[in-house]
From TrEMBL:
Source organism (scientific name): Cafeteria roenbergensis (Marine flagellate)
Subcellular locations according to the entry: Nucleus
Assigned EC number: 3.6.4.12
Keyword Hydrolase: yes
Catalyzed reactions per annotation: ATP + H2O = ADP + phosphate + H(+)
Family in the record: Belongs to the RuvB family.
Name of the protein described by the UniProt record: RuvB-like helicase
Ranges where the AAA+ ATPase domain occurs: 63-365
Keywords: ATP-binding, Helicase, Hydrolase, Nucleotide-binding, Nucleus, Transcription, Transcription regulation
Coiled coil: none
Alphabetized InterPro entries for the sequence: AAA+_ATPase, P-loop_NTPase, RuvB-like, RuvB-like_C, RuvBL1/2_DNA/RNA_bd_dom, TIP49_P-loop
Enzyme class: hydrolase
Pfam family name, one: TIP49_C
Amino acid sequence: MQIEEVSSTERAQRIAVHTHVRGLGLDESGRALSTATSGLVGQAAAREAAGIVVELTRGKKMAGRALLLAGAPGTGKTAMALAVAQELGPKVPFCPMVGSEVYSSEVKKTEILMENFRRAIGLRIKESKEVYEGEIVSLKPEEQEDPLGGYSKSVSHVHVTLKTTKGSKTLKLDPSIYDSLVKEKCRPGDVIYIEATTGAVKRVGRSDSFAAEFDLEAEEYVPVPKGDVHKKKDIVQDVTLHDLDIANAKPQGGQDLMSVMGSLVKPKKTEITEKLRREINKVVNRYIDTGVAELVPGVLFIDEVHMLDIECFTYLNRALESSLSPIVIFATNRGICTIRGTDVLAPHGIPVDLLDRMLVIRTMPYSLEETAQIIAIRAQTESIRLHEEALAVLAEIGSKTSLRFAVQLLTPARILAGRQGREDIIAEDVREIEDLFFDAKASAKVLAAEASHFLS
Ligand SMILES: Nc1ncnc2c1ncn2[C@@H]1O[C@H](COP(=O)(O)OP(=O)(O)O)[C@@H](O)[C@H]1O
Ligand SMILES: [Mg+2]
C-alpha cells in the first residue's frame, strides 16, 4: 500500500467561508461561552446540544446514530457541523457534501455515498523513522554534462548541509532528492527532514532565527532541532481512507501516448474498485492491530438531506451500523415533504426508521446584534476593513434576507471600495452592492412580477 506520497483530497474551498470557526466554544461544564473565542456567536442551545453529541461520540455511544441539524438557511448548520469535527480533535476529517451530489450519470448513488464515508474516516499513522533533520545551512547542486548528450547539464548530486543545536552534517544526495527539495521550495534557513530509507523530503517550517525577517507569506517558524542530524524520529501522518484509495488506484488505460493524453483531459478517471477497497481495509486493519496506525473517525456532513432518495437512505441505515463509520450529521431546511423515490410524506423527507436513529438539533434565526457580530468576525478573518455604519447596513440586510447572503456581500463590497481607491468599506458601498445584486427572494419576486415578459 502506498502511503508515502498520499496527497490530501480534502475539499478546502467548501469550508472557506467558515475559517473563523474553531470549535463550539463551551466551558468545562458544557455551557456556551458568550465571548466568541471559538468564532461561534449566539445559538447557545444548539451549541450545548452539539457538545453533548461530541461527548457521546468520544464515549463511543453514537454508533448507529446520527445527528440532524434543522433550521433555516444561514442559521449556521454547516458552521456547527464543522465545529463538532474540530471539537473531536485536531486533524479530524470533515467531509461536507450536498444530498444532490449522489445523482450522476456515471457513478452509482451508493458509490458516491461510500466515497464520502471514506473521505470522513481518518487514519493516523505513527512510525519511527530514520531521518536526517536540521536547518539547511547550504544547498548546492552539483552539475554534470548530460549523459544522454545534448547541450544541457543535469544535476548529478546535491550537497546539503544541515545543522542542529548539537552540530552539523553535510549529505551528498541523489538528484531525485534534489527534485523533492525544489518541489517543497526548500532554501537555506528552512528546517527540513529527509527520510533515510525513501528519501522523502518534508519541510517543517522556517527556522525561528529568521522570525524577524520581512515576509509576505504566512510562515510557520520552528526551533532549530535538537540532537544529532541523523536520528530516529516519530513521524505522524494523517490521511483519510479515500486518500489511500486514490493513491492506490491504478489509472485506467495503458502507458501509450493516447491514454496518457486522455487522462489529461479527464484527470480523475481512476477507478476505485470494491476489490481495491477490501485490500486497503485489510492493510489498514493490520496497521491498526499492530499499533502502527489509529483510526480517526471524522464527520460526514450531508446537507439538503431531502435530496437523497430511498435507495440512499437504505444504504445509510446499513452504513451507520458499520464499525468503520464516521459521525454523520445531516442538515435540512425543509419541514414535511415526500421521501424521494416514494410518495410517502415524512418529516424532512427522511424515512422514519432513519429518523428514529437521529438526534435533532434546531438552529434558530439570529438577532440583529448577533448578525452584526458574525459579519464583523468574518470581515476580520478576511482582513476586510468595515466602517461601523457599513456593518450596521450589512446586518440589516442579513436579518432581512439571510446571514449567508450578507456574508457573501463582503468581498464584492471590498472590490467596489477598492475601485474608489478606498481601503475601508463604507455604508455607501454596501448599499450600492445591495442594489447590484439580488438575494434569492427578491429575484424570485422580480421574476414573478415580470412573468409575462419571459417565455414559459
Ligand atoms: N453562530 C455563528 N457564529 C459565527 N458564524 C456563524 C454562525 N452561524 C453561521 N455563521 C457563519 O455564517 C455563514 C452562514 O452560515 P452557514 O453555516 O452556511 O448556514 P447554513 O448551513 O445553516 O445555511 C457562514 O459563513 C458561517 O460560518
Ligand atoms: Mg450550509
